[in-house]
Amino acid sequence: MPPTKLDALIIGAGFAGLYQLLCLRDRQDLNVQVLEAGAGVGGTWFWNRYPGARCDSESHSYCYSFSPELTQEWQWSERYPQQPEIMRYLNHVADRFDLRRSIRFDTRVTDAHYDATENRWQVTTGAGDRYSVTYLITAVGCLSTANVPSITGLQDFAGNWYHTGEWPHDGVDFTGKRVGIIGTGSTGIQAIPVIAETAAHLTVFQRTANYSVPARNVPLTPEFQQYVRDNAALIRATMHSTANGHPFVVEDQSVFDVTDEQRTAIFEAAWAKGGLQFRANFRDITTDLAANATAANFIKAKIRQIVNNPATAEKLADIDHPYAAKRPPIDSDYFETYNRDTVELVDVRAAPITHITPSGIATANGEYPVDIIVFATGFDAMTGPMLRIDITGRDGLKLRDAWEAGPTNYLGLQIPGFPNLFTVTGPGSPSVLCNMPVAIEQHAEWIAACIAHMRTHGIATTEATQAAAIEWVGQVNDAANATLLPHAKHSWYLGANIPGKPRIFMPYAGGMARYREICADVAAQGYVGFTLAGANASPSPSATGPG
Asked: Is 306 found in the same domain as 190?
């Protein structure tokens, strides 16, 4: 059979894919298809159903803001929504805007090859279905490729093991079980307290100690829910004006503008309030080591106060990076969980895991018997979801080869050598450093506007120039180096959690508001940094992008 011809094909039906579909199908009347590997909408939330899975952006900001009607009719129940509520929201959006009719579920894209003769992308699925499309948009997410570490003996383990990013949809019963969980990043910090509630014994294998601030999750009051509806436009404007896309601003004061007593009082109030806003009390916490140390030491002191066993407390407080240099978790009784008699902390930096036996996990200090292993080991972030698809661009260029030394990408939107391929929140965009729905809406709207421009002006192809991409990678590095983010040497922002992955800082740390301005300026200048080709296309104003 000949391939199905489409104007646009979108890979992924999470937040990004759903909104990109709406932007292209409903607003431009294009023939669009979404292909989704899962059995339903949700993207990362479809797969991440582990115990305690919850968003760390506040619910009234972790949602679409493009539709005032949608904002008015949807009501969140908690300050931080759990995975089932986020799924209910995304299913509501899919139904409200009649998006399902353009989505094929249980369909994984295996390869996409650019055909220069026809100027079309030839896309194939795992089932052998073929599509021929003008515009290919990857909305595959930044955190959707599970990282299961290669540990000798896993295949011989007699019990069951699970990765938090590929959790069984019917759940896991830990009652009466000895459980070992590997990883204490954001996911582990969410899962550990919940697993500990029912497990007979929980052994936590910690490589990297982590900061965490209480989430202080609570049900939303009717008064707050009404405030959100009444002030939706103001909340949206605030999110669009801030560096991280959250509905709060960073205070314009230095750690050193106040006395020690005043600073402690501010931190105490922020700790009591909880959430990511803890880092927003001073402008220099994320940029100055001395300023950061005041916040870091405050949190470490809290850990020592909360955890009863001094030796366990020291392991948890032995943190090797500045606060918020890695993703800053928020939690519900994480440190308190270590006061349970049934919870044990193992420092695998001091005594690494050597192998897995049929009955447990072996470290340099001996074996820990477990019935269930949980890998909370994160993802092959940002590039992994793209690279698991065999993507071939112009002149046979493989994406895996183009990115062999790290992802070269212009604005996180396009890759040199891959015409008419757009990436939503790709490497080089704020993405994971931002409240994701804010970044996603901006990306989807920019991509849709670019496609509309192409169609209006008879432009056949849009392709980022190599010079613009190289310059942008430099700006991404400069933005990171203006912060303390590179001080975390074992961060997945750098790809350090994946053996053999190039060490390059991937997200843009210059702030979502600044990034939005840059993208708008690029478009206003006739898509500077892109090569526009076609009957009515004008040459790019410049080979490079914004300075």
From this structure: yes
Last residue of a domain, one of 460, 485, 503: 460
**326 within domain boundaries:** yes
pTM, two decimals, is: 0.93
Per DSSP bridges, beta strands 103-104 and 343-347 are unpaired
Q: Has residue 494 got a pLDDT over 90? A: no
> Which residue's entry shows tokens 């990857």?
138
- Give the pLDDT of residue 417: 96
Residue 249 counted as domain residue:
no
Listed residue (450, 416, 429, 439) closest to 383, CA to CA: 429
In angstroms, the CA 254 to CA 172 distance is 47
pLDDT score, position 202: 98
Spatial separation of the C-alpha atoms in residues 244 and 180, rounded to whole Å:
34
> Amino acid identity of 200?
A
- H or E segment at 454? helix 436-456
Per-residue model confidence (pLDDT) at position 122: 98
Rounded CA separation 280/363 (Å): 39
Residue 200 lies in a domain: yes
Residue 248 in tokens: 């709060």
Which residue, 449, 467, 455, 454, is CA-closest to 529? 467
Give phi and psi for 316, each to the nearest 5: -70, -30
CATH no. for residue 44? 3.50.50.60
Same domain, 48 and 99: yes
Q: Per the structure block, which two tokens stand in for 253?
A: 């004061």
For the chain, what is the radius of gyration of the CA atoms? 24
For the segment 352-377, the average pLDDT, to the nearest whole number, is 94
- Among residues 331, 360, 375, which one ends one of the domains? 375
* pLDDT greater than 70 at residue 136: yes
Higher model confidence: residue 385 or residue 501?
A: 385
In order of 1, 114, 392, 506, the CA distances from 111 in angstroms are 18, 10, 8, 24
Cα 451–chain centre separation: 25
Query: Residue 339 is part of which domain span?
Result: 154-230+289-375
Are 35 and 159 contained in the same domain? no
Q: With beta carbons less than 8 A apart as the criterion, state whether 318 and 209 touch.
A: yes
Same domain, 116 and 66: yes
Backbone φ and ψ for 448, nearest 5 degrees, come out as -60, -40
Within a domain: 195 = yes
Q: How far apart are CA 103 and CA 141, in angstroms?
A: 17
**8 Å CB contact between 501 and 380:** yes
Three-state DSSP string of 176-197? CCEEEEECCCHHHHHHHHHHHH
Burial group, residue 231, by CB count within 10 angstroms (0-12, 13-18, 19+): middle
DSSP per position, 64-102: --S-HHHHHH----BSS-BHHHHHHHHHHHHHHTT-GGG
pLDDT tens-digit map of 290-315: 999 999 999 999 999 999 999 999 99
Share of the chain above pLDDT 70, in %: 92
Distance CA 65, CA 15 (A): 12
- The mean predicted confidence, pLDDT, of the chain is 91
Average pLDDT of the residues in 175-180: 97
Could you give the 3-state DSSP secondary structure of residue 305? helix
